[in-house]
Design goal:
heterodimer; A: mainly alpha; ABC transporter involved in vitamin B12 uptake, BtuC; two-stranded antiparallel sheet; about 0% strand; B: alpha/beta; Rossmann fold; 2 domains; seven-stranded mixed sheet; 13 helices; 14 strands; about 40% helix; about 15% strand
Amino acid sequence: MTITPELLLNFTIAGLMIGVLYALMALGITFIYSIMKMINWAMGEFYMLGSYVQWALVVFLLGADYWFVGIIGSMILVFVVGLIVQRVLISPMFTSGMERRDEYGTVVTIALSLFLRNLMTVLSGPDTRTPGRFLPPVTLGTLPVSGDRFAAFVGALLLIFLFYLLLNYTWVGMAFKASSQNRVGVQTAGINILRIDQAAFAIGVMLAAAAGALLAPVFLVYPSNGAIATVKGFEIIIIGGMGSIPGAVLGAIALGLTESLGSVFISSGLRDVFGFVLLIIILLIKPTGLFGERERLS
Amino acid sequence: MRANTFRVIAMFVLLGLVATACSAPAAPTTPAQAPTAPAAKPAAKPPVYMGALLPLSEPGAPQAGQLILRGIQMGAEYVNTVLGGSVDGRPVEIVTEDDKGTPEVGASGYRRLVQEKKVAGVTGCYHSSVCLAVNEVAKELGVPVIVTQGSNAAITASRIPQVFRTHLIDPIRAIALIDFAKSQGHKKVAIMADNTDFGVGLTTAVKNEGAAQGLQVKATVYDRAAVDLTPELLEIKSWGPEIIFNGGTGNTEHRIVDQAFDIGLFPKIPMLATSDWPYRSEEYWKLHPKNGVGIYILTAYHQDMALTKSGKWLYDAYMKKYGEAPTYSTLNGFGDLVLLAEAAKRAGSTDGKAMVKELETGSFEFWAGTVTMPQGEGAMWHQWTPPVVITQYAAANQLPKDAKLVYTFNYKAK
């Protein structure tokens, strides 16, 4: 195939767009990790929940004209689910004097992932669904793009920006940052760390749900649709550095571009391999990831 | 407190397992449970168990599995009520296993059917990768398996005595695809398929056949788990194909339709589904209400096709039960179950070797004609090939029975 500048630009735009969408997923994972020091293996299932809630709201309640309300509804609902899940399943990590928190977090979130996926298969059946296609196609440069994909891209950018504002310009955001640095320290300042954990988990899964809801018209709705989002999310946080927010965003964009351009110049069948090659290269050069820091243990 | 914590985990895992057990769209029927098909009149006779090994949940294609299962269940009904049962007039009962479209699950499912459920024969294999995994276990356990919709040539080319097939093989499917493209005047053909045994086998066959027929072929094999296929489709678009063969499975076939539409590729460039997934018409039109018109569909049954006596029975019974015409998946599932029951009946035994001999040497009435599955050369080993047709959805919300017939191969009209 002849690579023209126009084609290269199209692939770059496509890679950037998918990278920003990956970023939303990775942000949730890395945010939860940075606060609670646990990996939520059920993140993809919260993405899946978000897509199902969006589908149900649009098809049964709101109609296609109010699809954007469906996204907000998905985020709110999954936020509430996140609060409950954290309170019931995750908080015992910190309240029960548990010695092996990592093992507990891994087992409980993997069980949660299986439960949610199978629950949705029972409730909704195995059929693939779509909330519909809401927006007409747009053209970015010379690249024709689905209007829904473009809306998802813009929505993801907006949410990343709002998340940035929350973290950097609000009291709650500072509490989150402080908690990620020193859990004991924030408690001495009178902050209820358990509430911070609960809010962080709920916000993290809400971001995943937002990604699911935004992408529901593009990538469709079915019980296992979060699986690939989870894999990409974990790749990204390793590339960007565990617990680093800027790392998650840049890692996601790097992954999107690598996959898109690698598909063209090498082979599309190896697309998923490119992400792992990038990951290995980054780890060889900087074992903590792009923005990760060495942990100091006393 | 720690005990409480583990109690919570245990409860949660239990809930997950319960949900998993409930998640199969059709509850598996075991000998201990209620039979799927009605018992024959002389109910005192012990049943002959037949296995249905199908994808009933993801990452397989559960919608296809359901359609085949309907056919298998109605096949048991036909055997019990019309043919007077299987061996010694014993009724047939179906035992179902969900292979999840996953090779290792399929292989263990076949083993469970044979060793625990004591089935006399197995049918229903849909995903080629599952069929290939089942092959080796079938060779070991000796119970015949009839592949309903797995099309990789290696399934029968491996010449395993217990493995039979009544479905299109890749080389023949490729001949039909390329022949159709030529008949439409196309010279540049693109094929997109996933990296499953089906996808890779079909892509190779299309490349070979295209080269033999003097057509340019651009083959793209993508990862089965991929969700964004825009880069691949952009590459295809820049190559300038005149027709695209959509060889996706699972959910990606639908994403290919949508994402090709998004970048202005389809319907400007015609698209041909390399199997009959658009015939799951309710799902197809729900997913593509505005961009699904015009797709070509390769299948093995059309409304105007002549059916045998058993085929007509199924057609009428299916219409009565489901209010719609059966699709190829259902017809083939039905036919394969009848073949197994008849083989046992003729052999006078449910012994694997005796049934294999009958299947190998006999000729049987199938829904589309008379079936023979002798020891042929290469992939034609134990292979019977159904007719090939290509149809087209010419208008939105069309049903399979209304799809326009545009190409036939080895086809006999009513």
